[in-house]
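In response to reviewer comment 3 from the previous cycle, which asked for concrete evidence that the modeling workflow produces usable outputs, we include below a single protein chain processed end to end. The sequence was submitted unchanged, and the resulting C-alpha cells are shown without manual editing.
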Amino acid sequence: MQKMAAGGAHLPVFFRTVGVRPDSIPAVYESMPGAIEQSEIEQLVERARQGDRDAFGRLALLHRARVRGLLHRLAGADRLDDLEQDVFIAAWLNLKKFRGDAAFATWLLRIAVNKARRALKRDRPLPALDIEPRSEAPGPLAHLLLDETRIQLRAAVASLPTRLRTVFQLRFVEGLRGPEIAQVLGVREATVRSRLTAARQTLRARLRR
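The workflow returned the following C-alpha cells.
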C-alpha cells in the first residue's frame, strides 16, 4: 500500500493532537475507504482501544467523510472544522468506553450528533442545511430531490426542531435504520418512530402551504 507523504499537510489537525504519525497511514484509507473490510476495522478498533494512535488515525480517515457530512448537515459549514476536531478527540479520549454493543461508526455518529446539538444550543440561528443524500450511499429520498422542490424542502427541513431534524437526517440522508438511529441518539426505537412521523407530518404540512 502506498503511504501518504510525510508531514501529512492534507491530514486533519486533530492528528497532531492525538499523536498520529501521518506517514503511518496507507493512502487507501483516505482515497478508498470502502475497500477496507469490516474485519480489519474491528482489528483497528481493538488496537486503538489498547492505545495504538496510528490505528486510530486509520479509523478516523475511514469515517471522516461521513462524520463531516453529518456535522455539516446538522450544524452548518462555519463550525465544521472545529466540530470535526472535537468529535475525533472525544472519540480518542473515550475509546476505552466503547464496548462494541453497536458498530464503531454508530458510536462515532452518536458523538457527532451530541457535539452538533451542543453547538446549536450555544450558537443561533440555525444553519443553512444540505439535505443531499451521501453520494456513496444515497438514502431513500434521493429520487424525490428534484430541482424544482429542492429549495422548498431544504428550507422546510431547516425549520424543523432540532430533535426532528436530526432523526430525519439520520434516516433519509445517512440511510440509517430505526435500531441504528436509536443507538446513535440513545433513545428507544419507539421514540425514533414517533419523531420520524412528526417530522414527516410537519414537512408535509409546510410544503403544502
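The first helix runs from residue 14 to 18. We consider this sufficient to address the reviewer's concern, and the full set will be provided in the supplementary archive.
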